[in-house]
Structures are given as structure tokens and as C-alpha cells.
């Protein structure tokens, strides 16, 4: 949960399914809220029931997978809201199709829409410009990245490096609680990295308490996330040893790393 004191924007994690997070943006000055990727309407409806007088105005969708869009129908039928989502993906009840470079206003905030294909062909991320907050869906995870269902390794690498170029203090809210497994993989890739080992121990304690490990930050991801480090010599060497390959490019390194993670 994050509160911005000057304009009272609170970001709440609503757990769904096994490891999904639906992110709810609460504007206390207007008692209006928006949600990101409501795969299930239930957690959103429960939050609204606990906060009488609040109005749900917007739904932001990163991509078309059912665990991200499954709750739209119920929410759309219950509230007068706008559904924003990728223009070239089948988003149910979408009111506003979006593409890379669009600027939209939600809860009075400016949001920069960033095209990040790889996990799916039309995947979007949402960057709240003034708050320096990123909703990365299933593209950038804490210490990891999404699987390649529709895109290519080069597309995903390009998308990740685009997000990594955001300011290092940018808070990253991804759509799944994958931090623990991702850090275990990161340590397998870079076993002598004491910072990763220390963060892994911290995250183990956080998860033992049943708490959320997010948000992460862009600066942290640049340091820990192996998928953002495919241009580093020590990472390339680790991938070469594991895969038995000669790596000639960052794209090849990424592709081999993603294959390793898929089978980790």
C-alpha cells in the first residue's frame, strides 16, 4: 500500500486467484478509484463494499489473458466506468482502445501508455507520470519477466529495456507475486551476488508472514533482475555455461535465459 501525501492517491493490493494482484488506485480527495487488471470482480466489489460512498470510474487492462480481464463484465454491469485497454487485443467491454505513446487522464492523473509486446503481442504498461508509478502487468516482474506466449525474445528484451530506462525511483507494481521464485532463479544465474542472497532472505521472511513483496523499484530491478542484465559479461558467461552455447548478442542471452527460467 502506497500513499502519496500531497494528493492522497493510495495504491492497494487486492489478491486474486493463487498469486495475482489487482491494483486499486484510490483518490481520497474525490472518493473515486480505478483498478488495474481485474481478473476477478470479487475482490474489487469487496473493497467497495467496505468503503461506502466510493465510486469506481476506470479499469486499466494490460493484456487479454483471462486472469486479467475476467472480472470486467461484472464490474461494467454494476458501475458506470470506462474500460481502457490495448487496441489490438480482444479486451471485453473495452471503451477506449490504447496504443504505445497515448496519454490518458484517470482520476485526474496523467498516464503514459507504453507498448511492451512480448508476453502478448499488444501488452501495455501504464506509467503515472507525476507519481512515478508503473503498472507493468506480466512484462516486468520483481526480479523477473513474463513468459513469451505471443512475442519474440527481441520484443520482450526491447520492452524490458524500455521500462528499465524509467527513473530509478519509479515504483513498479506487477501483476503477480513471483518475487520469491524469481530471486531463487536470479541467484542461480549469479550465485556469488550477496545482494541477491540478502534480498532473497528478506523476501522469504515477508512471504512467511503472508505479506506482499511489492512494489519493487526500477533501480532495484536494474541491479537484481537477470533479464535486465543480459549485456553484463558475467551474466553472459553464466548463460553460456548453463546452455552450452556461445552467446553472440543480448537477444541470444535473453532467449537462453528465458528458456532456462521456463524449466527452472
UniProtKB/TrEMBL annotation:
The cofactor(s) it depends on are: Zn(2+)
Q: Which GO terms describe its biological process?
A: methylglyoxal catabolic process to D-lactate via S-lactoyl-glutathione
Residues binding Zn(2+) 2:
67-68, 138, 176
Residue span(s) of domain Metallo-beta-lactamase: 19-176
- The enzyme's E.C. designation: 3.1.2.6
Q: How is the cofactor bound?
A: Binds 2 Zn(2+) ions per subunit.
Do you know which CDD domains this protein is assigned to? hydroxyacylglutathione_hydrolase_MBL-fold
The record's listing under SMART domains reads: Lactamase_B (SM00849)
Pathway involvement of the protein, from the record = Secondary metabolite metabolism; methylglyoxal degradation; (R)-lactate from methylglyoxal: step 2/2
Q: How does it assemble?
A: Monomer.
Under which main EC class is this enzyme filed? hydrolase
* Reactions it catalyzes: an S-(2-hydroxyacyl)glutathione + H2O = a 2-hydroxy carboxylate + glutathione + H(+)
Q: What does this protein do?
A: Thiolesterase that catalyzes the hydrolysis of S-D-lactoyl-glutathione to form glutathione and D-lactic acid.
Q: Which HAMAP family match?
A: Glyoxalase_2 (MF_01374)
Family of this protein: Belongs to the metallo-beta-lactamase superfamily. Glyoxalase II family.
Q: Which GO terms describe its molecular function?
A: hydroxyacylglutathione hydrolase activity; metal ion binding
Quick one: which residues bind Zn(2+) 1? 63, 65, 119, 138
Which keywords does the record carry?
Answer: Hydrolase, Metal-binding, Zinc
Q: Which InterPro entries match?
A: Clx_II_MBL, Glyoxalase_II_hydrolase, HAGH_C, Hydroxyacylglutathione_Hdrlase, Metallo-B-lactamas, RibonucZ/Hydroxyglut_hydro
Name of the protein described by the UniProt record: Hydroxyacylglutathione hydrolase
